[in-house]
Amino acid sequence: MTAIAPWIAPHDPAKTRVGPIREPPSPQFPMGTTHLGQDMLSRILCGGSIMLQVSTLSVLVCFLIGVPLGLFSSYVGGVFDRACSLVIDAVYAFPGLVIAIAISAMLGRGVVNMALSIAVVYIPSYFRVVRSQVLSIKELTYVEAARGIGAKWYTILFRYVFPNVIPSIVVVATINFADAILTAAGLTFIGLGVEIHIPDWGRDLTSGWQYLSSGAWWIIAFPGIMIILLALGFTLIGEGLSELLNPKLQR
Predict the structure, then answer these.
(1) Residue 243: what pLDDT?
(2) Residue of 171, 175, 185 lying closest to 54 (CA atoms)
(3) Hey, what domains does the chain have and what are their CATH numbers?
(4) What is the pLDDT, as a whole number, of residue 251?
(5) Is the CB of residue 100 less than 8 Å from the CB of residue 117?
(6) CB-based contacts of 240: which residues, under 8 Å, 6+ apart?
(7) Which end of the chain is more exposed for a tag (fewer CB within 10 A), N or C?
(8) Phi (first) and psi of residue 33, to 5 degrees
(9) Bridge partners, residue 65, by sequence
(10) Pick from 198, 219, 15: nearest CA to 114
(11) Exposed, middle or buried by CB within 10 Å (0-12, 13-18, 19+), for 107?
C-alpha cells in the first residue's frame, strides 16, 4: 500500500491546516493530525513510500558493490583478498548508525544520499557472506574439474560458483531491508536524511515526542508502530527464506 501512497493518500502530507491542530483519531482523520494540522494517515502512507525507496536503493547498491567484490576477492585470494578483508573488517567494527550519520552529514539531505549512507554500512555484510561461501565452493570437485579442462576464471566464477551463492544473497538482502528501514528512521529522527518538506516516519517521531506529555499520543505512536511492523515483516520474510533455501535447516 505504501508503494502507491502518493495516489491513495487522502491529503497532501506536507500541507498544514488540513484539519484542527493535534486532532485525535476520528472518522475524518483516522490517525489524527499533527501539531501543524497535517493528516497523519497521509504522512504515514507517503512516509512509508519514502522508506521503501531508501531501503530498496540501499539494498541495490549493497548488492552491486558487495557481491562482485566478495566474489572476486575470495576467488582470486592473495594480497587483494587480504586488503579487501582488512578494509571490510574495519568498517564492520564501527557501529553502523555512527557511520551512516557521518556519511549522511557529509553528503547532505536527499533520498539518494541517505540510501548511499546506509549502503556503506551494510556492504560488508554482503562481502563477508559471499566470501565465506565462495571460499568453500571453489574447492569443490566440479569447480576443480572446470579448472582442469581449462575454463576461464570468469566462466568458473559466474557459471559454477555464483549460482550457489544466490540463496544466501537473497536472505541477506531481505533482512537488510529491515536493517535499512531502522537505520533510515534513526537518521531522520536526529534530523538527517531526506529534505524537511518530505514526510518521514523518523521525523514524525521527533516532532511528536514533545507533544506526548500533552496527550497527543497518536503523533508518535503510528510512525513508531509502522517502523516496527515494516522492519519485523522483512525480518520474518528473511528468516522464512533462510529456512526454505537452506536444506540443513529444513531437516
Answers:
(1) 81
(2) 185
(3) 42-245 (1.10.3720.10)
(4) 44
(5) yes
(6) none
(7) C
(8) -125, 165
(9) none
(10) 198
(11) middle
Q: What is the DSSP letter of 3?
A: G
- The angle at the Cα of 133, spanning 132 to 139, to the nearest 5 degrees, equals 100
Contacts of residue 7, defined as CB under 8 A and 6 or more positions apart, other chains included, come to: none
C-beta separation of 130 from 68 below 8 A: no
Long-range contacts of 61-65 (CB under 8 A, 24+ apart): 61/115, 61/116, 61/119, 61/123, 62/119, 62/122, 62/123, 62/125, 62/126, 62/173, 62/176, 63/126, 63/169, 63/173, 65/119, 65/123, 65/126
Strand partners, 33: 39
Cα three-residue angle 9-14-15, rounded to 5 degrees: 90
Could you give the CA distance from residue 51 to residue 159 in angstroms, rounded to a whole number?
Answer: 35
AA identity, residue 23: E
Question: What 3-state class would DSSP assign to 33?
Answer: strand
209-245 pLDDT per residue, tens: 888 888 889 999 999 999 999 999 999 998 888 888 7
CA–chain centroid gap for 83, Å, is 26
Label residue 139 by pLDDT band (50, 70, 90): confident
Cell numbers placing 125: 555484510
Name 168's Cβ contacts closer than 8 Å, sequence gap at least 6: 129, 130, 133, 245
Closest of 238, 230, 232 to residue 49, by C-alpha: 230
H helix or E strand, kind and range, residue 229: helix 218-245
Helix (H, G, I), strand (E, B) or coil at 147: helix
